[in-house]
Amino acid sequence: MELVVQKYGGTSLATAEQIKRVARRIIAKRKSGDQVVVVVSAMGNSTSDLVELARGLSSNPDPREMDLLLSTGEIVSGALTAMALKDLGCDSISLTGAQAGIHTDTTFGRARIAALHPERLQRELNQDRVVVVAGFQGVTDEMEVTTLGRGASDTTAVALAAGLGAIRCEIYTDVGGIYTADPRIVKKAQKLPDISYDEMLELASYGAKMHPRSIELGEMYQIPILVASAFNENPGTLIHGDVDMMELRNKVRGVACDLNVARITVLAVPDQPGIAASLFEPLAQAGISVDVIVQNASQEHLTDLSFTVAQTDLDKALIVVERVAKSIGSPGVVSNDHLGKVSIVGRGIQNAPGYASQMFQTLYAEDINIEMITTSEIRITCIVAESQAHDAVKALHRAFGLEEPS
Amino acid sequence: MELVVQKYGGTSLATAEQIKRVARRIIAKRKSGDQVVVVVSAMGNSTSDLVELARGLSSNPDPREMDLLLSTGEIVSGALTAMALKDLGCDSISLTGAQAGIHTDTTFGRARIAALHPERLQRELNQDRVVVVAGFQGVTDEMEVTTLGRGASDTTAVALAAGLGAIRCEIYTDVGGIYTADPRIVKKAQKLPDISYDEMLELASYGAKMHPRSIELGEMYQIPILVASAFNENPGTLIHGDVDMMELRNKVRGVACDLNVARITVLAVPDQPGIAASLFEPLAQAGISVDVIVQNASQEHLTDLSFTVAQTDLDKALIVVERVAKSIGSPGVVSNDHLGKVSIVGRGIQNAPGYASQMFQTLYAEDINIEMITTSEIRITCIVAESQAHDAVKALHRAFGLEEPS
User: Fold this and answer.
1) Which of A33, A138, A182, A350 gives 20 to 30 Å between its CA and that of A1?
2) Inter-chain contact A98–B58, Cβ cutoff 8 Å?
3) Do both A267 and A376 map to the same domain?
């Protein structure tokens, strides 16, 4: 008997009727002979509702209380899913993150899984039960409840698959797979039959709807991850390590887009060692991720230093940056929160120099100005005006021949 | 510095605005110099909403999952209350029942507190924090989440007051005190300035809105319990052990009413030892409380055995009773789920024989038939038709002179 971990997203658990449908799918899987562990997200918009409640009480809600608050959403859908399974005659039990042994560090709001103690979970499996685990949450050694970040039920699922020795992790969503671009932006976007972990990681980090940490874990433990529809039986996308390199050679696999981008520029910074550290160290301590960093050529030992953060982090970041800027003698800080990030991703990129110039040409032909550029081995990213980002995605999707089924 | 435990009910925490109001009240208390532990119920109707969700999935939801589900309501209001306190500048932390060290037995749905391990809670208090505890819930030694029964946040509050050595437990509700009768039934009902534990226990068991276990605990540990309004500063009712007996002599303190009553009659039962045990033992095992028991005079070694259960337990009880009835040779079981319980309560009753006859006369004058009678030292209870119960309360309230302020 083999073990499969299935994860169901909140849009597929929004009502009692939908939870019953999910329960029937789980039972069908169980009847095929596999053991099943199910990870659930919070029902529909319930997490957003809780966030809104909290914001009604405080403009800056305490992170520890926020995590305790938000963790209840997944516990609710877990208990309801287990009830539905039992009602349909399938023995089941739901576990909170703490009960499932998901131990994390103490970074509230974006905790990382530090250890898995799945003894209890394994015991329930051995009793032939479907175990439903509340996603998105864990517990510290001091019994404090933490959450792993928005969308991190994916990470719960892959971590459990790795820790329990599952043969596969199945992520069921309303999207139904990984596409060459967001189908809401590009009508002709194609579903990919499979994709490698590293390509998926770049897509996830740059706009595709999966929690990046889940892909990292999948790669680290070589867990194949199937992303498929929660609403039909259509084939999804398999994220794995065995993608045929011959077939993929010189190929862009997808175009990612992220509109949650803001740029901060610290003007006329002294061009000397230690300056970058003095700026980015306090940002890291404040829990703010810095993405693209560009330093202009030095003029008279002064340089402008630009970097991007999430738009949602901008206000918090500016407080830190303005304090540091003053202390290092910068005359000022400017910011722009109307930017977007557009990326092409594919393993082929690392071997062929032509992709970058084709990308820049394509954007130029559309009259889209490139504000910043950053690359990895398998990705090229341009920062453009937020208002032009979707046009950029469409043009790139066309230019790299992604409209034809692969 | 003395410690006070305050409990706020769900109707006073139904919206963000109300939670802010409660936070301001807590801060006012804190500023008077006392340490404060706050116990909260779930917001407004959120518990009923969760119950409804569960019933949409199963006509008989798994009790263990139900407890896990319902426990989230109090965790939500706890986290929100702590956020509100912090936002108003008052250091605070919320704890789940498990984090607060409330250990229970494993009777899901109506667990009893088995032990209190308040080390963590005490640590937070020592850091000068207002500690907000999710009411109504606890945890077993196996880390299973339990609930203590509907309305049992009162019990959480009194148990914490006892365990932490508080000088007083304050229960803030939408009713604002203990009345001589339910003010929704009797317009001229009077608020009592104080009442003894044992009288309150009878009132609570027979209709007044407090969890009986909380009164038992209050008496056991001699914790004075103030029941007062969450919405204004009017004086409430103090439940304590020092009620002046002279003043109360020969006095009925209140009229209680409970419409959640059903009667089961097992017909023609053999009148021999062991029969009652064979019936009530399996009911107890099924978690069903039996209240009034009446056995008719024996005729030819056969007797009818009647008893009452909560209407909400009737279906479950009948399954058990019908099985047992068959095995002991009873020709049948009949039931009536349209009954109500009306009680007069007061310490004075134990010394004066006139109260019972005055009660029966009053009901007779109103043309109300008495179906069953049961008494304790300080209470006389009549089972009447559900449709006449409110009229009975009104008549008794008048007859025993409870309309004048005490």
Assistant:
1) A138
2) no
3) yes
